[in-house]
Amino acid sequence: MPADWQFRLSKLTLRKEIIEIAKEILKFLLHFTRFFVLLHRKKNHIMSNIDIRRVTTRQELKLFIQFHYDLYRGNNCAVPFLFSDEMNTLRKDKNPSFECCDAEYFMAYKDGKLVGRVAAIINRRANERWDRKQVRFGWFDFIDDMEVSTALLKAVEDWGKEKGMTEIAGPLGFIDTDREGMLVEGFDELSTMYVNYNYPYYPQHMERISGFEKDNDYIEMKVKVPEVVPDKFAKITEMVRKRYGLSVHKFTRRELVDEGYGRKVFDLLNATYKDLYGFSQLSDAQISKLVNDYIKIADLNLVTAIFDGDNMVGFGITFPSFSRAMQKTRDGRFLPFGWWHMLKILKWHKTNIVDLLLIGVLPEYRAKGANALIFDDLIRWFQRYNFEWAVTGPQMETNEGVLSQWQYLESTIVRRHRCYKKNL
User: Fold this and answer.
1) pLDDT 10s digits, 229-242
2) Helix H or strand E encompassing 365
3) Strand partners, 333
4) Which of these, 220, 171, 172, lies nearest to 415 by C-alpha position?
5) Number of folded domains in the chain?
6) Disulfide engineering: 218 pairs with which of 8, 29, 76, 394, CB 3.0-4.6 Å?
7) 145, exposed or middle or buried, with CB in 10 Å at 0-12, 13-18, 19+?
8) At 114, which helix (H) or strand (E)?
9) pTM recorded for the entire structure
10) Is residue 15 part of a domain?
11) How confident is the model at residue 28, as a pLDDT?
12) What is the pLDDT of residues 355-377, one digit of tens each?
């Protein structure tokens, strides 16, 4: 064989060997790539094995609501919410807030078990008022699992982004009369049916989830009902009556329901709360619902109004505490015997605690001492009903004017709730 042929043959053989080696290398790389992909998928499955499901049916909404009762069953400080109220608030065909709000509800499942829930809400009226593009999260409950809480909030964030929102905040409801804030202090105190209760690990999760920061704090006070009306209140009350001509008025049911004063109370609330954090004006339909939910069943001795001539300038709405009664219900239901426990509180005041639900005074009358008139009257009724303690509703920690009114009474901070925010 000629020498040049031998050279060509050896060169061809070398090429074949190189090609074979290259094929083996490619096979190795392909197997390695497949292995890496499978490993990555498996890792993602482990890290993302939370199944987020959107609530689409009435039955799923019941499961969404029931989760809270199951999570807090046996907790001596948590207070169940009325099941019917939760349904009517979350149903789009029942809650008039949906005239200015959009909402979706999400549930988290892990290994086929329900482990968390959250509501995503956009209040268009509030966003317009405060010039924001904000999605709210509320009804936020979860087991102590970072994957669950993170996945739920991501579902809210993603939905908000789809709607063009640029920030997320909460816990918040549809409107200000819904429950707001996450409990960060006061876990060992008996809660009320008007505020959120949660386990201590909730705020721990919020601190660990990237991007969230404190937006606002609310504090609630526990006030000792004095045996005698403090001299300070008595003197201010007498002075206010003489100097400004303000007077205390006790409503009849007819005045509140038939003559429209119940609506005027919430018109006044619109005026007094308009500059508070995240507040949106109540519509006629929302006011009608609030009158039906609260005014129609209130003990009118525990409702006080302040008038300047024919004009209402302030009000106070209080209820005996239903907390222990609600704990005796079957997951917030009236049946079979929940109605009896509630009736004992509503009619016969079988509790030593009264909840200061709503108090509002027009700004120009606060400096005139209208608040003192409200408390001077209510304290006397608290004494008659043998209430020992009054618990305030949430008050912004920066609202020094409101907080200063408790300085004349024996009081202490009993709870703190926090709202968080994050830019999207």
Assistant:
1) 888 778 888 888 88
2) helix 363-366
3) 330
4) 220
5) 2
6) 394
7) middle
8) strand 113-123
9) 0.86
10) no
11) 53
12) 999 999 999 998 888 988 999 99
